[in-house]
Amino acid sequence: MAPLTRSATRGQSVEGVVKRNQTAAAAKRSRKAQPRSKAIPFGDNNASEMETNSPTPAQRKRKLAQAEQEQTPGRPTEKMPRYVAALEKARFAKNMRIPSHKFLVPPRLYAVLNGPKPTPEVVVNHGWNANKLSDNVMLIDPNTMLRGTRAQVTDCVIGKVGFKSGFHVWAIIWPEDMRGTNPVVGVAEKTIVPQMSGYVSMLGLLADSYGWDLRKNEVLHETFSHKVPAVSRRAYPTLFGSKPFEAPKKIYCILDMDEGYLAFATDHSYLGVAFRGLQGKTLYPAVSSVWGNSTIAIHYIGGLPAEAPSLFSQCMRTLRGMRDANQVPKLIPNLPPYIQGMLYFQQ
């Protein structure tokens, strides 16, 4: 007979104790098998406080319910991609560890996503440029291109409308199984050639374009002229750390020609700024592809006209131009985290 356990000696049968232990072990394995909730990588001014004083699950549940009932002024939660609607929920995510100043969502992005939808005529007018196609590319409709099957060439397509000022958002719909080895999205000047020989990451190869290579997860600019790769290419996005990022079918391109930056986002995450210093140029939405029979669509979501810069934005721009990102806390002791977040805006 097996020796009685401590619990069994108190009037419980061995079978009952064994059954209880098996139930507890099964519950433990079930908890381990459940995926942990991922923190949505949005900046929040209270992130540092959350790390040291995280609310209990009951408190988080009450706060989430309150956030769903009461919309934050200026940040409505309807008619948004899921990652924007989940912003309030991300504030209370237990395992959020992204610094609040790293990936601040541009306020103007909320205005575009919650503004009126563009008319079909506007969407068509912001489609692909039929006059800048190679003989290996055709348009299925004004907003969808089809690349042919010619080998050892890379084709590039740009949009009809270029942007020199204002804030603009559009979506690129590119299926994951139609990308090949060098799929690149970004912007380009009108002077870019529609085709190059070989399989290359065409956007970002020269000075007239800026691109994000979806396969290598790198942002590219003037890679052909720079002998040092680190000068012309860098890893992007960086908010996921060493974990490889797989770009989904739909990618949002965010171009602010007033501030002079290009950023990207998905339905779940704002990925941060990819390029800066774009002021003074006229840039067109662009893609470059090497995959035969690939279809790539563009959908213009909306934009905001250029507005006179406020005194606050001018001051912040001056400070960002003067500071070195790693020296700001040393130069200004006891700087509030919120001000640090403004100085590190989207960097």
Automatic annotation (TrEMBL):
Compositional bias of kind Polar residues: 1-12, 45-57
Signal peptide coordinates: none
B30.2/SPRY domain sequence ranges: 91-305
Listed GO biological process terms: proteasome-mediated ubiquitin-dependent protein catabolic process
Any Pfam family: SPRY
One GO location term (cellular component): SCF ubiquitin ligase complex
Region (Disordered): 1-80
Gene3D superfamilies in UniProt: 2.60.120.920
UniProt protein name: B30.2/SPRY domain-containing protein
